[in-house]
Amino acid sequence: MRMRLMLLGGGNVLGQALIQQGAEEDIGFLAPKPPESGWDAASLTQLLDETRPDALINLAYYFDWFQAETVTPARFNEQQRAVERLAELCKHHEIMLIQPSSYRVFDGSRATAYSEKDDPAPLGLHGQAMRYLEQSVRATCPRHVLLRFGWLLDGTPEGLLGRFLSRAERDEALYLADDRRGNPTPIDDAARVILAVLKQLDCMTPLWGTYHYGGHEATTSLALGQAALSEARNFRSSLVEEITPQAHVARPDASEEPQHAVLACKKILHTFGIKPRAWRAGLPNLLDYYYRHV
């Protein structure tokens, strides 16, 4: 790798997965420790003025963007200002910016898979924040890659999957939508995709733009929960017996979460040669991580 790579968010699980996979191929990252209050416009300005990397991967707010149940508007506003400044700095210093985004930029009103050509129309605060971040990056930093991921899964106790597993051990009944669809995407797979994109950019190929990626085999949240529960029984016997199907509209997060969130991944395949991997193959590692850290 000829480029000097900077990773914001090297301490979170997706950042760690990216660092580990990079190390296996002798690809290193500058991964600065954030200030105690987190990255903001001032600290980012100082950082990039001093370091001047060739490419920057922004995973600084991974948990809030992809795993948190709720995030306050004030917190999103702070992050939006920081990303605005980051995009300005990347343009000024001619730094490539790799910015993750989410299926949540769509409202889920169509049953067919969303492509990069479809117009975003987010439902709730999460999706609105991600759309705003995308707009800031596009408008400010020409040399960017926006990666919209499907349902990102990690093994942290505080994450989406971890909260489900905790309820499976604690609650007498579990409910999941059987008419809500998406692409489960383990973080090891997401890290593989980011690394593959960086390798192509290292060849100085100007493949800027927006790309979709989600794990192979779109599924329902109910089927995903059943698969996770089946794998979890290898670690715990005291789990709820079964999951009760429930309509999407009856779910408490129906106003925030798109009912149809399947992403079409043809563009990233044709441009970068990145093939989707089966999400089921990533479940054992996720469950192993969870039960070692719970």
UniProtKB/TrEMBL annotation:
Pathway: Carbohydrate biosynthesis; dTDP-L-rhamnose biosynthesis. It is an enzyme of class 1 (oxidoreductase). Its EC number is 1.1.1.133. Pfam families: RmlD_sub_bind (PF04321). Its cofactor is Mg(2+). Residues 3-290 form the RmlD-like substrate binding domain. Keywords: NADP, Oxidoreductase. It catalyses: dTDP-beta-L-rhamnose + NADP(+) = dTDP-4-dehydro-beta-L-rhamnose + NADPH + H(+). Binds 1 Mg(2+) ion per monomer. GO terms for molecular function: dTDP-4-dehydrorhamnose reductase activity. Belongs to the dTDP-4-dehydrorhamnose reductase family. PANTHER family: DTDP-4-DEHYDRORHAMNOSE REDUCTASE, METHIONINE ADENOSYLTRANSFERASE 2 SUBUNIT BETA. Catalyzes the reduction of dTDP-6-deoxy-L-lyxo-4-hexulose to yield dTDP-L-rhamnose. This is dTDP-4-dehydrorhamnose reductase.
